[in-house]
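Researcher: I'd like a candidate sequence for this fold, 188 residues long. If you have to choose between options at a position, lean toward the conservative one.
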């Protein structure tokens, strides 16, 4: 075997640097994986901690109802704001999260005409829908809407609609099953 073909041996300094870089890369990979798993668990945790919808709408407190999906990036981006609102207004405001991919909520999807996610309904103490937000909302916009809801004032109109998918010339009277879970199937 010709030893001249082999790469020169790393000195101790290069070896230590390579080991340090490998450790940093491994730690970063663990942090990224852990952060992503927390993100999806947080939406589910908020949903599981929610009151049942009927109870929240009937207990005399204002309620935020968010229709979300685990695969929805915007829903994940809004999750810290929703958790903050729940914590900040604990006792005065109910928060209910409903996953649109759960067939248990099909009736509610139809009842509240949910056509995109995230959709947040702002319900008064009597359970009536006072306003809705579709798409990404900034924390200060949601906070202003919640404060108005708690004060029983008209909700401020957001400066724009949040980011949503474009819908073509859909005819709601058609018998197609177009909804937030259809992913565009049945849309002409």
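Model: Candidate sequence:
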């Amino acid at each position: 075997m010709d030893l001249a073909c082999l790469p020169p041996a790393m000195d101790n300094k290069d070896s230590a640097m390579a080991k340090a870089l490998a450790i940093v890369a491994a730690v970063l990979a663990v942090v990224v994986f852990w952060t992503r798993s927390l993100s999806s668990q947080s939406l589910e945790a908020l949903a599981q901690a929610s009151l049942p919808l009927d109870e929240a709408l009937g207990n005399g407190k204002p309620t935020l109802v968010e229709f979300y999906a685990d695969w929805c990036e915007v829903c994940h981006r809004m999750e810290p704001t929703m958790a903050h609102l729940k914590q900040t207004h604990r006792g005065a405001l109910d928060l209910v999260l409903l996953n649109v991919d759960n067939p248990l909520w099909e009736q509610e999807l139809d009842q509240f005409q949910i056509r995109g996610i995230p959709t947040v309904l702002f319900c008064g103490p009597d359970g009536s829908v006072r306003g809705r937000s579709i798409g990404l909302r900034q924390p200060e916009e949601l906070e202003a809407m919640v404060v108005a809801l708690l004060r029983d004032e008209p909700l401020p109109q957001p400066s724009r609609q949040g980011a949503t998918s474009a819908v073509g010339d859909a005819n709601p009277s058609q018998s197609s099953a177009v909804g937030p879970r259809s992913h565009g199937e049945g849309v002409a």
